[in-house]
Amino acid sequence: MHELAAALVAADPVTARRVGALDPRTGAPTLDLPRTDPEHLAGLEALLLSWSGEATAAPGTPAWLEQRCVGAEVAVRLVELRVARPWARAPYWYVETLGDALAAVRPDLLPDEGYAASYVHLLRSAAGFLAGAREQLHAADVPPLWAELAVPAAEGLRSMVTTDLAALTPRLPGGLHTLAELLLRALAAAVEDLLEHSRTLASTGGGTWAVGEAVFTGLLRDYHCLDLGVDELWEHGWAGVRAAEEGLVELAAELDPGRTWQEQVAALRAERTPAQEFLTAYRSETERARRITLEHDLLTVPPEEACVVEPLPEFRRAGLPLGEMRTVPAYAREHVSRFFITPVDPHATPERRAGHERENCPTFVRSIVGHETYPGHHLQSVHHQLGTDEESFLRFFRMPLFVEGWGLYVEDLLEETAFGRGPQALFARRNRLWRALRVVIDTGLHTGRTDHEEAVALLMGRTGMDRRMATGEVDRYTRHDNPTYPSTYVLGRDLFHRLRERFGAGMPLGRLHDALLAHGSPPLPLLERVLEHELG
User: Fold this and answer.
1) Around 317, how many Cα atoms within 13 Å sit in the side-chain half-sphere?
2) Burial 46-65 (b: 16+ CB within 10 A, else e)
3) Do 415 and 469 have their domain in common?
4) Are residues 203 and 222 located together in one domain of the fold?
5) H-type alpha helices, 111-229
6) d(CA 521, CA 188)
7) Residues 290 and 145 in one domain
8) Domain that holds residue 227
9) Rounded average pLDDT per 10-residue block, the chain, 536 residues
């Protein structure tokens, strides 16, 4: 592992779990929780600053690409330490961090005394970790919305602790059963306390989630490596919205001149997927997407890979109205991704249930599965791992401009090669409008051009999205780790099309894609410089 990557893994268990690093004590994913004390955070900042500086290798070389990716990682982590500070401002950070650690527990390993000891240590430290939120979270710094997001997340975590973890207790060896039961009771009480504290902060918090123009611009420049200002991005977003709307009108007139695109999309959404069939539908379309990738030779499908479709853990559902993709971790031993789908809330009103089923209509499921699985995020993550050396920082580093740009480019690719100009393409173009609006909303939210309610209304009015879905989307854009992220879908897709136009002449499409994905997931403007040397 690269020296900086190893240091970040050692300093932050959250990073360790994300990249698939294993605990040397147990040989399984680490179950430790992160530290938030000032000494530790200051040491982490000093570590990052020691790796800052200009790239010294020749531009366009693999060494230069690696050095520039190190610089990008330093830039985004310094923003987290100095600006976002989720441990001091985001109550949901505590819930999600603990929830992810608990979700990493391997039930099959619990009978092993060494692993069971690590699990009990996690339970022992968990209540204190949550209790630390009261000391770290100051009302003046907490955005009320971030506290609101913590409430349903904590409710889901409470269910996980009292039901799922309680069911694991009999697996523990020796006399650990009684201790685990006591620790789970203490943890449940700590979750309840954080839940109530979050409710209080939702009404007393005085912080803001908007990062401001200077930070936003810095992320575009130093993290994404884009020569793009806020005003340019804002205009680019609106230009994309207009183009997407024109494309929708044109295709709708071609398919059915008697109905608007909104009416045609509404009819497609009315063919909703029943709640009890969500997983079946996504699994079936995942298999279909894999077949399409192979039949059209869109990208090499390496052996021994798999994409598993599962229900999203309850504590994550509040901020993810549709679901979440967990791709192959950088240092995982197996090439297995997990595509988590958000089930319908069993306590939802009939109206809300129907809305959730409409958002997961068969046409939408088909349109999003390629983006997430084959040849999208899952398969790209496999190529990322296979195309990078374990000792290189490129194995560790993943740039959203590349990852999300590839996913959106894949939607265009599937329309071009498999779906054609039919109802599926109409729905895909509606999704392009949604992604173009993300650029506008992302830029607007963080620079004061748009507020939360205006952003929700914009999504509802321009795409026909229902309020639940639109609110969940905008809530996600406000999170501590999301400034500039929503914009990367469109920006990255456009850059992939540019790379294809520039380097794809005379090359089979699948081999071009193999070449584009052979350097991990770096910033695309940097990859273009490397490809100039390799492909001419």
Assistant:
1) 19
2) ebbeebeeebeeeebeeebb
3) yes
4) no
5) 113-136, 144-159, 166-168, 176-204, 213-218
6) 39
7) no
8) 218-535
9) 96 95 87 95 97 94 97 98 97 95 91 92 95 94 97 92 90 90 96 97 97 97 96 97 96 96 93 94 97 97 96 76 91 94 90 90 93 97 97 98 97 94 91 95 97 96 88 94 97 97 94 97 97 86
